[in-house]
Design brief:
Number of helices: 3
Oligomer: single chain
Helix content: 25-40%
Distance between the termini: 15 Å
Length: 153
């Protein structure tokens, strides 16, 4: 059994909570409800390498947060998203160990169809199903365990 702490970061309104709740419940809530301070949950996936437990943390402040991996959520509906990606990369670099992997997740892909190729994952909590979202967590587990043949069931 592997436990992995995943920290979601990104600007307000980017869709972090919607993404996380979609993973938890497979439901999409179109209403914007800002996260206050911290949101936590746990999701489990079975694989051919055993059980993976992902402790998911969404924070409004990066201080005092530990992460095995960071997911930087990028709002693809914003024309200036590269500007705030640079800002978040700087904050992540200041807060986390240089060996902490960062995954780039393009959010709101239903709005902007021009998807950049450097993203690890692109989604819309509105249109993407839970099984597709699971792929991001498989990529994380594969990276952290160096297991190229890793499969989630």
């Amino acid at each position: 059994m592997s436990k992995i702490q995943v920290v979601f970061v990104g600007d307000k309104g980017v869709g972090k909570t919607s993404f996380i709740k979609k993973i938890e419940t497979n439901l999409h809530n179109p209403e914007y409800i800002p996260t206050k301070d911290i949101y936590k949950c746990t999701v489990n996936f079975q694989s051919n390498y055993g059980n993976f437990i992902f402790k998911i943390v969404e924070v409004s402040n990066l201080e005092y947060v530990y992460a095995d991996v960071v997911i930087l959520c990028i709002d693809l509906s914003r024309s200036d998203f590269t500007k705030y990606v640079n800002k978040w990369n700087s904050l992540i670099k200041d807060q986390f160990d240089s060996k902490t992997p960062v995954f780039y997740c393009g959010m709101k892909s239903d709005i902007n169809k021009n998807i950049i190729s450097k993203l690890h994952f692109v989604c819309s909590s509105k249109n993407t199903c839970k099984s597709e979202l699971k792929e991001l967590f498989r990529l994380i587990a594969k990276k952290l365990t160096s297991s190229p043949g890793l499969v989630f069931f």
